[in-house]
Amino acid sequence: MVGLRGIVSTLWPRAGNRSDIALLIKRGGRISRLPVQPCWRAAYSSDATSARQGVATSPKEVEINGKKYATDPWFNVSSTVLSLTSRKLHLQKDHPVAITRKIIESVFPPPTYKYYNEFDPVVSTYENFDSLCFPPDHPGRARSDTYYINKDTLLRTHTSAHEAELFRAGASGGYLISADVYRRDEVDRSHYPVFHQMEGARVWDRNKVPNGDLAAAIFQDLDRLPKHNMTVEDPNPPFHPDRNPLQVEHHTPEEAAAVAAHLKRSLELMVNEIFSRAKAAAAFATAANNGTSPVEPTEPLRVRWVEAYFPFTSPSWELEVFYQGDWLEVLGCGVSKQELHIIAGVPSQIGWAFGIGLERIAMLLFQIPDIRLFWSRDERFLSQFRGVEDNLARMRPFVPFSKHPACYKDVSFWLKGTSAAGGGGSGKGAVDWHGNDLMEVVRDAAGDCVEDVRLVDEFVHPKTGRRSMCYRINYRSLERTLTNAETNEMHDRVVRGLVERLGVEIR
Ligand code: PHE
């Protein structure tokens, strides 16, 4: 779904080699783990609070980064996810997420752009959704998709949650935010319940430009930006009345076209920087393997603009990059809805905004095959990036440590009989089953020892109308070979969690 679940989370690689990484980046999903597991997660879980094995706990209040929050029946954050709120990988020196942030920051320099990297992950539903014009029934608000502390408070699902407050601060110019964001999702090698995003915006004030001529001022700023030699496909007009409308009541066509042009060049420069660095790092590694000197790739990078939809921008786009034979979606952006500036008390401002997922980019930059690796405290992972943040020329692709065997186990069950999903309910659409709830149980019970979870079979009993599902859980540690006994133990915990938390009946 474009808008909230889009872009910044859904694009990840599938396995260890390069083309696999591009492929993974095209998929969707996410993970978690049991902190007390004697597993991958245990190697770096010193800050994890202990979860009762596979069973949800509903504390009266929770503490996040030193602040206490009262919970209510909306609370749905597992202790494993809570334990990650203090990690802030984007600020951890030489972490690939932090290196990626630095590369992006280098394209948006001060004093025009100010950096905000310390915003707290706990925000209000107003900040995360309402302030950005998300309709009340937007699916992104569902408890199956979003981690709520209580009805009015949640773990931000995107960095756009801070747009309104920065617009309210009113300074013209621009900003970059980097932060951890949280989404309930599937379990696979490209999705994790916590990941990092970067948000950027640039605004101009019509009262502060010469002769009030906004478009001219913006085009002048565009002229000052560097050029690049990427091949850019941009087949659509800057706006389209049905597909990608101009905000007619607020912007002239010239103003919107100027903002769009500045936005597009700025983001093309960013993507050019990222992918040039990825290519250079890969060329170094290949040369080192062959004992030759690195050759910079000559073929120019290809990118394309695709029309998109976000509740808080119009017109909107996604930028895709042609990488290893496929088009990869790398970011979402658009001309900010004027309502945001008006509500923020700065109606004379106009501008653009974008959002980008850092893990996705870091996976491409460093050829990191599994998103779980970012949370590793294993020296075999971390040592590979030492010294890179201060000297980006030292960037090299990640060299995976040996791949450990996988062991999959299936779990089949009947859904709770009382719901329509379980076959026992009446009204159409009264389905109360959501796959993300199962994913969460798996994360809590087996942590980072699960590589992915897939629905392999589903049917409705012709007589009883009950619905049966079969999921395949693929157990594989990134750091060592799991014993049969511990895999069985984890699987038992998953099964128990499904029964106790989701009320399913094991078949
Ligand atoms: N917040 C959007 C997302 O997470 C991305 C975005 C940011 C789109 C800013 C437009 C402008 O998908």
Automatic annotation (TrEMBL):
CDD domains: PheRS_alpha_core
GO CC, alphabetical: mitochondrial matrix
Primary residence: mitochondrion
Keyword Aminoacyl-tRNA synthetase: yes
Transit peptide among keywords: yes
Gene3D superfamilies found in the cross-reference section: Bira Bifunctional Protein, Domain 2, Ferrodoxin-fold anticodon-binding domain
Enzyme class: ligase
Similarity comment: Belongs to the class-II aminoacyl-tRNA synthetase family.
Protein name: Phenylalanine--tRNA ligase, mitochondrial
Organism annotation: Parathielavia appendiculata
